[in-house]
Design a protein that fits this description.
By secondary structure, this protein is α/β, with parallel strands linked by helices. Helix content is about 55%, strand content about 10%. A six-stranded mixed β-sheet has the order 1-3-4-5-2-6, with helices on both faces.
Length: about 375
């Protein structure tokens, strides 16, 4: 029975006289017992919880969110992922690192049994739109733990002293319930303290953040993400046991992303490797978010045009628009033709006659 993390949390909650913490972790403990086939013991725990509870944990328990005293804004969002399989597309080495991290979380109680209690903290860094937030949700889904995301607009107060208090509130909130605490846009509150442009109070905010991370890391799960890793204070890096770069997708991942984002529709190039590779080459340098937007815009264009299925030409047209090329018929016709679109299909998508298409190509010497 490898559930020592939950037992420790229940004892902590009891000693702290924190009823909510005891209830939350006792319920999680009973669920894990049931997974191990200990139904009778799980039922006994559940019966005790039901007698002493006035509301179900995991639902109402997360409604009492911490708020900023001045703005009264919630400082966290809570997401409880479904059991449905969540697909995520990442470079192979990145995927391996993320999966290894998930396995370490799943075997945490075994480590504790051996007297090994390392912090389970993860820092994700890389360009915007490449999947850092998606990774956090993926980890929450795989571990079946709620994801508590800190909202920086509610965290950073106009009064810097209040910001330190807000940081403490968020960590205390996450410490009282089984969850993953996710600090997105981490650089906003973890900037290097040697930055000459930052005032002294902001440096004290970073000190407060580091102290809270140290306390929280003893028994909890922390994930942070940043688009600007060079801005982070050097001491921040030492607080994370796992650090993973999330780069822009390469051609192989771009092909997988296209298939993922178009999986709900029929398209005429699904078995055409050459066309798929052409799209991947054209999209090299795009982030995953851009590719998702482009695919959804292609689907919308296809539906509006009443196509029987999404065409290769329609996707190419959206790539052309997204890249911000010169918007004139000559350049567009040449682009489509160069990338393997027939004159007939160019005529359909642009509403030009084939003779007009031929004339444009002839004038271009194609």
């Amino acid at each position: 029975m490898y559930m020592r993390t939950e037992i420790l949390k229940i004892i902590e909650g009891g000693l702290e006289k924190n009823r909510d913490k005891v209830q939350s972790y006792a319920l999680l403990f009973s669920e894990k017992l049931r997974e191990e086939g200990e139904d009778k013991f799980a039922d006994r725990i559940k019966k005790i919880i039901d007698k002493k509870s006035v509301h179900p944990v995991y639902l109402d328990e997360f409604l009492s969110k911490p708020v900023d005293q001045d703005s009264r804004l919630d400082m966290v969002d809570v997401a409880i992922e479904s059991n449905n399989h969540k697909k995520i597309v990442l470079p192979e080495i990145t995927k391996v690192k993320v999966d290894n991290y998930i396995e370490s979380l799943k075997h945490r109680s075994k480590f504790i049994e051996l007297g090994i209690n390392l912090p389970e903290s993860l820092l994700l860094y890389g360009p915007p739109g490449c999947g850092k937030t998606s990774i956090a949700h993926y980890i929450a889904q795989q571990t079946q733990l709620p994801l508590v995301t800190a909202k920086l607009d509610g965290l950073v107060s106009s009064l810097l002293g209040s910001t330190a208090k807000n940081i403490r509130k968020i960590f205390e909130y996450a410490n009282e319930r089984p969850c993953i605490l996710f600090l997105d846009e981490f650089d906003a509150i973890a900037k290097a303290r040697n930055d000459e442009h930052e005032v002294g109070e902001l440096k004290r905010v970073v000190n407060s953040l580091l102290q809270n991370i140290d306390t929280f890391n003893e028994n909890n799960i922390l994930i942070a993400a940043t688009n600007h890793e060079k801005l982070l204070d050097p001491a921040v890096w030492r607080r994370f046991t796992t650090i993973v770069e999330v780069p822009k997708p390469r051609e192989a991942e771009i092909v997988e992303l296209i298939k993922l984002y178009l999986e709900t529709v029929k398209y005429d190039f699904d078995k055409d490797r050459k066309k798929m590779n052409t799209l991947a080459e054209l999209l090299l340098g795009f982030n995953a978010s851009d590719i998702k937007t482009l695919c959804f815009n292609s689907i919308k264009k296809s539906i509006i045009s009443e196509e029987k299925q999404l065409t290769y030409a329609t996707v190419l047209y959206q790539i052309y628009l997204h890249k911000g090329f010169k918007e004139d018929e000559i350049t567009l016709v040449s682009f489509l033709n160069t990338n393997g679109v027939s004159q007939s299909d160019i005529s359909k998508i642009l509403g030009l006659s084939r003779r007009q298409i031929r004339k444009v190509l002839d004038d271009q010497g194609e």
